[in-house]
Amino acid sequence: MKTLVKLALFMLLTGSCVAVLAITISGVQFAETSDYRALFTDASSLREGDDVRIAGVRVGRVESVALVAGRAEVRFSVQRRHSLPRGVTAAIRWRNLIGERYLALATGKGGPGTLAAGATIHDTRPALDATELFNGFRPLLEAVDPAQVNRLSLQIVQVLQGEGGTVESLLGHIASLTTTLADRDAVIGRVIGNLNTVLGGVAARDEEYARLIDDLHALVKGLAGDRRAIGESLVTLDRLTGVTAGFLTRARPDLKADLAHAESFLAGLNADGERIDAALDAVPLRLNQLTRAVSYGSWFNFYLCSLRVGAKIENAGARCSGG
To answer: Residue 209 and residue 46: Cα distance in Å, rounded?
Structure first.
């Protein structure tokens, strides 16, 4: 019985830990929230459950992303204790290098007061489209003959290594390549036109890029100031790795035996599955009884309903006759 109680407590504790972990990963909010909407021309890679942040601090989550009248409508919730100004702006920003995004809220130009719950934000900016940036070079790359580029590269290597060929021949290949590029002036013009959109977006975010560079400078400066500590940490990490490897080497035989015992233990649990299920089914009843027992305070109430006393004397006659 004690084993079943311990098993039930272990499973209850494990289930609680798993529930807390699941709630943390899913980003479920238990605080009171207010719902808002924001309209974007492009909401690519923004998904339900993504963060909503103010000054880098998570204050809500994205509830849905849908297409409404040719624009992306993003519905999101914000914790009620964080009021949004009437001139709030919304922007989709990169969360990491693998393409995840988040919704950033900032104070824009607007009158005093706060934004009412359920209102729509029209002052929005989509995220920078990296695909559009790289696709801008496609016409130029398609116009250049790969074989011609390969011949030029081979000629440069041969001249630098002294394996035949002359500088005159090398210059001839370079002239041929530049002539080809000159003949593709229309293609180059399209490349520049394709990049105008991207460069316009970069220019509109000059303050953000400036802050990014400043933050990167501060990070590098901090790392440079702590270079001695970082070096010592690497040495210590090397020692720790060696100690850990030795520990695992010594513990491997015992660990193998423990795993074998664990297999036997789990097999026993599997064999007693019906009894364990019955014990778990009885847990709610036992908890209800325990709740009633302590319902009047932090003590237990015991009631003596009956008392039975019995005595049994074995071979009493033999003892008496023996005097």
So the answer is: 21
Nearest CA to 138 out of 188, 82, 99, 103 is that of 188
The pLDDT-based confidence of 323 (bands split at 50, 70, 90) is very low
Which residues are bridge partners to 72 per DSSP? 40, 67
Token pair in block for residue 149: 């580029």
- Residue 34 CB neighbour total at 10 angstroms: 19
Identify whether 16 is part of a domain: no
**Residue at 182: amino acid letter:** A
Q: What is the dihedral of CA 91, 97, 99, 104, to 10 degrees?
A: -20
Cβ burial, residue 143 (10 Å; 0-12/13-18/19+): middle
- SS3 call for 72: strand
Residues 6+ apart with CB under 8 A from 223: 230
Which range of residues forms the domain containing residue 104? 33-127
pLDDT for the residue numbered 312: 55
Examine residue 267 and state whether it is found in any structural domain, yes or no. Answer: no
* C-alpha closest to that of 32 among 159, 117, 107, 111: 117
Which residue(s) pair with 106 in the sheet?
Answer: 89
**What is the identity of the amino acid at 263?**
E
Please count the structural domains in the chain: 1
Token digits for 236? 């210590």
pLDDT in tens, 102-145: 999 998 877 778 888 889 998 998 877 666 655 665 665 566 66
93 found inside a domain = yes
Residue 239 resides in a domain = no
pTM, entire model: 0.39
Mean pLDDT of 49-68: 91
Q: Mark out the alpha helices in the chain (DSSP H runs).
A: 2-26, 130-135, 138-143, 146-161, 167-183, 185-204, 206-225, 227-271, 273-281, 283-293, 316-321
In total, the chain counts a number of residues equal to 323
